[in-house]
Specification:
38% of the residues lie in helices and 19% in strands. It is globular and about 45 Å long.
């Protein structure tokens, strides 16, 4: 799994607040694909506001094809305001970022599934968009949504194959959010067991 930041500091996790460099996520995954044969390759998670969803679908299909079907596509709403400010990208309220992520996930999953996508949303518009060639994995590479709030969980239940809880602070906190994920699935008419789960934990050495 490779994270997606322009740069980062570790103060949120109890580390220093000095800026640290970060390799670009997709370039790194491409290099890993070229130097491995069986390990799966995942983004955890692509910051949605750094790339257009039609481009993300194209990137994902290409990497899945060139890696022989090893991609796990994780997408998130973005949270690190300093990199937004540095890059001149508006840092919207959390609800806006998550709703924008929801639209992006719908566009990406449909394109990766082979659909011709005309979409008119609050944040994105596409017209007869296609993604060719298609990825190796069918019906498409697994798409994960990463986060923990109620709106995010509903987005995962509606559009994604899996949900990643990042970062775990306690088992009790994860248990509460896992139950909320179950409820989100039930509210949209989905069986909770069909939503894959993963947990991110951090270690300071």
């Amino acid at each position: 799994w490779v994270s997606d930041h322009l740069f980062l500091d570790w103060s949120k996790y109890g580390g220093p607040d000095t800026l640290q460099g970060s390799l670009e996520c997709w370039t790194t995954l491409s290099a890993l694909a070229a130097h491995t044969e069986s390990v799966r390759l995942g983004s955890l998670a692509l910051c949605n506001d750094l790339r257009n969803p039609a481009l993300v679908a194209k990137m994902a299909a290409t990497l899945d094809l060139l890696s022989g079907g090893r991609l796990e596509l994780g997408m998130g709403a973005g949270w690190y305001e300093p990199e937004y400010r540095a890059a001149g990208i508006e840092f919207s309220r959390a609800g806006t970022r998550i709703r924008r992520l929801g639209e992006a996930v719908e566009i990406v999953t449909r394109l990766l599934s082979g659909d011709e996508v005309t979409f008119v949303g609050e944040h994105y518009t596409t017209s007869e968009a296609v993604c060719r060639p298609q990825p190796v994995q069918q019906p498409r590479p697994p798409v994960w949504v990463c986060g923990k709030g109620d709106l995010l969980l509903r987005t995962a239940a509606t559009s994604a194959d899996g949900w990643n809880f990042s970062w775990v602070g306690s088992l009790d906190a994860y248990e509460e959010r896992a139950k909320a994920a179950d409820r989100a699935c039930e509210e949209v008419g989905r069986k909770p067991e069909t939503l894959r789960r993963s947990v991110g934990a951090y270690v300071l050495a």
